Amino acid sequence: MKNSREIDEIIERYCFGELTPEELRIFEQWLENDPQLSASVNDFLSLKDAFENYRERLALKKKIEQIHEEVEYDLFNAPAPLKVVKSGKSSRVIFGKERSYFSIAAAVSVFLLSAVSLSLWIFGSGSSKNQNAYRELRREVEKIKKNQKEIIKGINADDVKGDLKQFTGTGFAITKDGYVLTSYHVVQDAKQIYLSNEAVGQLQAEVVYSDKALDLAMLKVKEDSFPGFKEIPFSIKKSISDPGEKVFTLGFPREDLVFGDGSISSYTGYEGDTTAYQISIPVNPGNSGGPLFDNQGNLIGIISGKNESAEGASFAVKSKWINDYINSRNDQNNILLPTNKFLVGVDRASQIKRIKDVVFMVRVFN
After folding, report:
1. pLDDT tens-digit profile of 11-26?
2. Whether residues 135 and 98 fall in one domain
3. What pairs with residue 166 in β-bridges?
């Protein structure tokens, strides 16, 4: 029987991904059968998240100071005066240096993050008066966020050369070093691909593998300065799930991340397709490529489409085929699939909080 100190050391190694494959197998069996151990793991993860948030706030403060200096320099040291460029009925201000555009958008984004964090700290658990003040502040912040998104859209449009059409979908990370899964039909014939969410901002990616028959594609971040994603909190289920099992998904049918839940309706997908499930979650085109999870936070599929003839019926490629798809391509790249159980026994809101940083809007230009 291990003492509490030894158990704490094992939990720490588990949460930081330092267990050997054999130790991991034994620990996960123990975790599934010991609710007290699961609670201890969740407590450690909460503490780890708190330290990471503190570190990120320190980095955020430094970033604010840096951006402030850049914006100040750009405004007062531009080699050419400001000018207004008209395009149809609209117009926009251009600075002497192109990076001013990015600096101001980034400064607004950083300000928003700081404002929301600060307001949560001040008003999060106060009186009714404070709560009303917080809600009013939140509405104002949402207005600013909407304007900031329009600025970023303009920047993105300027970056894309030629008369390209834009499409969006969803993708999710499967490794910390930049591999992302999505649907083949999302990135088919893509000229440029960008991944974006609140955690990473925007990253350029490229297709490294694709399978039209399974409607699967693997992307890889291709930016030299990419620091890597956060820890992948889920595992990929190898067995088949059953009809009636509760499931949920995250995706980008609009600019913000959207949660949907339901259950598995059938073992098979469209017209009896055995590689897919039918699920009772309404989806829209932007959901394509999004992850499908069970109640324990295991990845069990990828959203592939919806049934136009049945309201609220959608389809998802089964995780068994995802496993086979990736393993069959490991002759060129040694891709280690996630096996973490950080979402086991965790409430749904906490599961989403840990997953959202590795789920992305996939913006495609064809």
Report:
1. 888 887 787 878 877 8
2. yes
3. 365
